[in-house]
Amino acid sequence: MHICGPAAQYAYSEDRIYTPPDALLPDYLLLAETLGLQRIVFVQPSVYGTDNTVMLAAMESCPLENRGVAVVKAQVSEAEIESLNQAGVRGVRLNLVDVPDPHSELPLQMIEQLAVKIARFDWHIELLLHVDNFANLDKDLSDLPVEVVIGHAGYFRPGCSPDNPGFQALIRLMSLNGAGRSSRPPIECPRSLTPTPTPGPSRKL
């Protein structure tokens, strides 16, 4: 769940690639009540960069049980992680898509450094990336000391087939014995759903 705004109170990052409308906690709580939801996972959106202020404020004021997934710098200190942990954060997010310069290669050094830092807190790493770009995903991530969550069910682009090497790498990663790797539910934008009888990657997952 992303919380954005109020824009008049919280400034967006200058490096953002889009500007969202306000998406406020009271609106979501109304939706949660309608749907009967009792727990929330807040996820830091890219538009705030590594400033987790809005998310942390929402977590603190939310009447429902909640946890958070933060965005941090590679140089984040143990004290900063401890503070976020006390606030209810249980993971870090690395967005390789919604950035000014999308990554064509995994920043493995950064991922490994973050994994080591958060391992003792039993956090996970969420990666938001176009899985169809990364045919060696399983080999690159299999030895990390933390669980890996692949956001948006792999964020596959239109026309991607289940035979895509990146998709096959994701399947291998998820099947590693004892690895605890996972993919979030395949909820994705309509533009990434192919109107054909052949199941695409999201339906396969």
What does this structure look like?
With 205 residues, the chain is α/β, with parallel strands linked by helices. 30% of the residues lie in helices and 14% in strands. It contains seven helices and six strands. It has a six-stranded parallel sheet. Strand 5, helix 6 (165-175) and strand 6 (182-183) form a beta-alpha-beta unit. The model is unreliable at 183-195 (pLDDT under 50).
Short description:
The protein is α/β, with parallel strands linked by helices. The protein is built from 7 helices and 6 strands, in the order αβαβαβαβαβαβα.
**Category by helix and strand content:** alpha/beta
Q: Which sequence of strands runs across the widest sheet?
A: 1-2-3-4-5-6
Can you tell me the residue ranges where pLDDT is under 50 for at least 5 consecutive residues?
Answer: 183-195
* Range of helix content: 25-40%
Q: Major sheet: size, sense and barrel closure?
A: 6 strands, parallel
Could you give the order of the helices and strands? Answer: HEHEHEHEHEHEH
Helix count, DSSP H or I runs of 4 or more residues: 7
Characterize the overall form: globular
The first-to-last residue Cα distance is 21 Å
Q: Using only CA atoms, what is the Rg? A: 17 Å
The fraction of residues in strands falls at 5-15%
Total number of β-strand segments? Answer: 6
